[in-house]
Amino acid sequence: MTTGTANWSFTQDDFTSITESLKRFLGETKSRCALLVDRSGQLVTTVGDAPGLDTTAFASLTAADYSANDQLAKLVGENDFSSLFHQGEKDSIYVADIARRLLLVIIFDSRTTVGLVRLRIKDEVEELTLLIDRVFSRGRDGAEPGGHHLLKGADDEIDKLFNW
Amino acid sequence: MINYASREINCKIVYYGPGLGGKTTNLEHVYGKVKPETRGKLISLATETERTLFFDFLPVDLGTIRGFKTRFHLYTVPGQVYYNASRKLILKNVDGIVFVGDSQAERMEANLESMQNLYDNMAEYGYDLTQMPFVIQYNKRDLPNAAPIEDLQGALNPGWEVEDASKHRVQPDPYHAGQNLVEQVSGGEWIEKAPYFEAIAVNGDGVFDTLKAVSKLVLKALA
Q: What is the ipTM of this complex?
């Protein structure tokens, strides 16, 4: 049985690869920004124009939104809805699943179209899936030299955290 | 999740329990007491009558450890039985659980039902609650109809069997002198109980004790 879920980590190399891939995507589709969010609602990274919004809250709500839609899909007999699209007057968002671990959120405006985003996102999802699979196959341990047991022996430091 | 690039440790804690037990009140108190620069917005997806519809969410920074910023995401679930589908979603990828029980004697059945529901929902995700950071808070201790702690403990925290022989040693309860979290019972078997706290969440009593205990368990589970 799984006993916890904090069993993965990103290294600087993972970040560089993911960021470069997303920058390319944003350039090709003329989208404003991309957010990578894990399914528990934690923000992994933001690429592109600073979105000017509360990204922590945004990430949490995106994960909840996507999870709710996942269940709606099952209720109508689908395995999942692989993407979500919310259209606004100026800005719109497109959300796609990456390897059932992460969500890719694209924020775009009238400089581009949902058609172009949808067209290009398929390749982007495939590319990110390969990168993310590498991260998850490695797990938490051995993520970074010396990071094998980041918190080992850190009990004193943990105790000191709670001086509110 | 440990993010080496942004040097952050992110953890998810879920407050679970029966409807009107005080889960949202716990988060509201934390929100009101911690410094604004160490917390984000409190997001509530609630009905017009302030009943939680989907969840409440509050991100809190606890400080830095080994150069990593530790950020806890606190969630509540809707307590009402009706909302089980959305409640289950919030448990996805959880790192630690707080069960907020309602001490009122007449809410005992609702407490038991919610605890069973928690075990069932966790099991559906393949998580074993007995192996996870898990604490229990008995809320509303100030009410005249509050049941004695022994009754609540007997019903909601009777202890689970410790199968791993290497853990068969007495572990005192650091929060209650003279009590143990792990001990051998008269039948010879070893049992473990979850740490528990008494609270009056509307006044803030016990709210931070509970949060600190579960946060420590989560971080120590990572160590």
A: 0.72
Most confident of the following: A77-81, B82-86, B201-205: B201-205
Domain tally, chain B: 2
Residues B43 and B151 in one domain: yes
Report pLDDT for A158. Answer: 77
B179 and B97, same structural domain? no
Q: Is CATH 3.30.450.30 correct for A12-139?
A: yes
pLDDT in tens, B119-169: 999 999 999 999 999 999 999 999 999 999 999 999 999 999 999 999 999
Chain A residues inside the 8 Å CB shell of B128: 1-3
Nearest-CA distance from A152 to chain B in Å? 4
Q: Choose the mutation target among B53, B57, B89, B93 for the interface with A, i.e. most A CBs under 10 Å.
A: B93
Comparing CB atoms, the residue among A5, A151, A155 nearest residue B95 is A5
- Rounded to 10 degrees, the C-alpha dihedral A115/A119/A121/A123 comes to -170
Quote the pTM value: 0.86
Within 13 Å and on the Cβ side, how many CA atoms surround A97? 16
Domain carrying residue B31: 2-157+195-222
Best to test chain B binding among A36, A56, A67 (most B CBs inside 10 Å):
A56
